[in-house]
Amino acid sequence: MTPPRPRPFILLIALALGGCEDAQSVLSPHGPLAADIASLAWLLFATALAVLVIVLACLLLALRGTPPLRSWLSGNGAIYLGGVALPVVVLSALLTLSLWITRESAGQRGPPAAARVEVTGEQWWWRVAYVGADATRIESANEIRMPAGREMEFRLLSADVIHSFWVPNLGGKVDMVPGHTNTLRLLADAPGSFRGQCAEYCGGPHALMALRVVAMPAEDFDAWLAAQSRPAAEPEDEAGGRGRALFLAAGCGGCHTVRGTAATGTAGPDLTHFGSRGAIAAETLPLTKAHVAQFVTHAGASKPGIHMPPFLIFSQAEIDALAGYLVGLR
Ligand code: CUA
pLDDT value at position 104? Predict the structure, then answer.
C-alpha cells in the first residue's frame, strides 16, 4: 500500500493562508498599530514553533538518546531548566512586549487626534457619531469613515452588554463596557475598506454584528463629513415622496431618525444618509432595494433575535416605494 500523498493537505494550507489576504485579517496590516500586532503574532507563532521543536527533540532524546543523555533528561536539572527557567524567561519577555504594544494603542498620550468618532456597541449594531472640536455630533451607523494618513480617535462605549470593537487590519480589539469609555487610536496608511467584527459574545446574532471601516483620502473625508452633517435629501420623485410618507405614517420614526423630517427616534440606527452606506443590518446584507424591502418586512429572517419587528402591513407597491425612499437617502 502506498502512503497517502501530502498534496491535498498542502493545497488546504495554501487555501487557508490565501484567506489571510482579506479585508478582515490580522496578517494583512494597513496601519502602524496593526503592523505591530502582526509582527507580534508572527513572533508568538515562531516562538511556539521553537518550543514545539525543543519539546519534540527532548522526547526523541528521551526515547533514543545515549544513556548519559537520558539520565540527564530525567533529572531535576532538566526540569528546572526546561520547566521553570525557560518558560519564565520566554513568557515574561513576550508578556512585556505585548503590554508595550497594547499600551501604544491606548491613545492617552501625544497630541489630540485629527478626528474623533464615538462608537457605541448595541444589540446588534454599531451607533456611530463623529464628534467635532465644538462637540457637534453627526450620527450614523454600522459604517465608519476615516481620513487615510490621519490618526482617528475612537471612543468606545456600550449601550447594553459587553461588546468588543475589532478591525483586525487596523488594530487590536478593545472591549466596549457598559458605563465605561475605552479609547483607541487608529491610523490607516492608505485608502481602503476594512471589515470589523464584534469580538465578544453579546447574545443572539452576535456573529452578525459586523461593521465596515472605510479609509478615504483626507480631503474627500472632510467633504464627505460636511455632506453627512446636512439633513436628508428631498425625495427625487413621486415614488420617493410616497415612500417618505409611508415611513412617517408607519411609525418608523419611533425608532429611527431621518434628519430634516419628523422621524426623530433614537432606539435604532440613524437613517439620514442610509443610502450612502455599503450594507444594511451591520454588514449582514448588501445595500440594495430588494434587501431593504426584505429587511423591513422580515428583519428577523436576516438577523434572528433582532429587536426590529417584522412589518407586514405594506402592499408590494408600498414596500417598493418605502425601500426606494430609504435607498435614495444618500
Ligand atoms: Cu456585540 Cu458581540
Answer: 65
